[in-house]
Amino acid sequence: SDLTSTDLFDLSPVVPVVVVDTLDQAVPVARALADGGVPVVELTLRTSVALDAIRAIAAEVPEVVIGAGTVTSPALAKQAAEAGARFLVSPGATPSLLAAMRETGLPFLPGTATVSEALAVLETGHTAMKFFPAEASGGAKFLGSLPSVLPDARFCPTGGITLANAPSYLGLANVGCVGGSWLTPADALAAGDWDRVTALAAATAALR
Ligand code: 3PG
Q1: pTM above 0.90, yes or no
Q2: Closest Cα to atom 7, ligand 1: which residue?
Q3: Which of 60, 78, 103, 130 is catalytic?
Q4: Any stretches that span the bilayer, and where are they (predicted)?
């Protein structure tokens, strides 16, 4: 891939965390986000159509950087890479999952929620990570406590982030971007309300 893990922080202030229930939602939701100025999708591996959705977006929406989220096993890391994911995001990390994500050659954000978990990732030489579940794990106050002890670690907090609380994270020196599902509500996807997705995406431009 042409991207490094730290480059992932610069694609958009908000990385949309997307759950597609049916394959026909995949391409239009990616196009709707791009139309709203958000050129990245974290497509979560939570539904049976997720890998096919990644394949479809990779093939049909080249203006979007398509990644895989909810990568919870070494096998899923490999399958996501084979489907055309250009980056990987996990909610947590084990030694074998870290190794498998690295093995794909793709940029990746391993999930961490404690200082010890962040240290374990840093020990592997990797500085870019997800902070999950952000609001439940101490939020911006927790992340703001880290630069003095973990100056190299940079985070994409996800979990409970909204348009309203995103600025409290994006103002921190160790936060590169935030992630969230609020740009792609399940009912908008089910109804094919792509204009609503585009409007929610466009509203994040004010966070830059
Ligand atoms: C994730 O996988 O990062 C979360 O499901 C996103 O959390 P949110 O739904 O609270 O935005």
Answers
A1: yes
A2: 159
A3: 130
A4: none
